Amino acid sequence: MSGSTLRAAVDALDPELDDERIVDLTTNWLYANPLLYTLTYVLVFLRQASIPGIAEILDRDGRGPTVRSPRGRNAATMSYFGVWFRHGYRSARGQQAIERVNAVHGRFPIGQDQYRYVLATQIFEPGRLMALVGAQPLTATENLARFVFWRNLGQRLGIEDIPDTFDEFHAWMIDYERENCRYTPAAGRIATALRDDWVHSRLPAPLRPLGRSTLDSLVAPDLAVSLGISPPNLAVRWLVHRVIRGYLRLLTEYTPSARRYTTGFGASRAAVSA
Questions:
Q1: CA–CA dist 187, 218 (Å, integer)
Q2: What is the pTM of this model?
Q3: Counting CB atoms within 10 angstroms of each CB, which of 143, 163, 200, 236 has the fewest?
């Protein structure tokens, strides 16, 4: 099945009833690439760090694991995502991951608005990234299925007052960013730690000197201000956007011969049972 045929099959599903299936097909088949997935994860995480209250909880005056050992912290979070993307949130394994995440979050003074915003970034930031580089947008079915998937998962995670529709939640997120996003030293430390870790853990040594510029080229201008990130060279930014746009087009046309997981399931299972 070609990527375009798979996308057509996804669009034939019901995003309200088949949200877990659609997320599986898109995350583990259509867009499945570990490097692209971890890059998107870092960019979503950077967006969350632009909220001072969230940044303070993550940073803890420079002593939090997000700053001191981002690789382990990120691997644990992505392992939960791997369970939900592969098995769904309704499954026994999905529920086990929910219980584990709730236990971890329960140790911190996280407000409902902060939970709600983190959830919103999981839904909307990948689409914002695709728009930034000029890539073909997600289809209406993909967008709605992502919303339903994360809304239902968010409710199981105890997040309250999630807006009822895609458009309402998106409008809430934009208003929340307008009122809250700003630079803090904590955000700057988190941004440095996450970017450095991605470059050193995901790229071979010869490419690392270009890795930071590549990642920074995918940080939206408004987010860069909130994180204290200097804009990259315009030529580098243009080239990175062109390469990512072309790769995404190729990825959606590629004929997958087998399911490809965005995260290793072995790590997922270990993290959930830890």
A1: 17
A2: 0.91
A3: 200
User: Six-digit token pair at 60?
Assistant: 């803890």
pLDDT-wise least confident of 83-92, 184-193, 200-209: 200-209
Name the H helices within the chain. Answer: 3-11, 19-25, 34-49, 52-59, 65-68, 70-87, 92-105, 112-133, 140-156, 166-180, 185-202, 208-216, 221-227, 234-253, 265-273
pLDDT above 60 (res 255): no
Structure tokens at 192: 């440095």
- Burial class from Cβ neighbours inside 10 Å (0-12, 13-18, 19+) for residue 60 reads middle
Place of tokens 């584990």: 100
What is the C-alpha to C-alpha distance for residues 139 and 11, in angstroms, rounded to an integer? 8
Can you tell me the distance from the alpha carbon of 269 to that of 274, in angstroms, rounded to the nearest whole number?
9
The string of pLDDT tens digits covering residues 158-188 is 999 999 999 999 999 999 999 999 999 999 9
CA-atom Rg of the chain in angstroms: 18
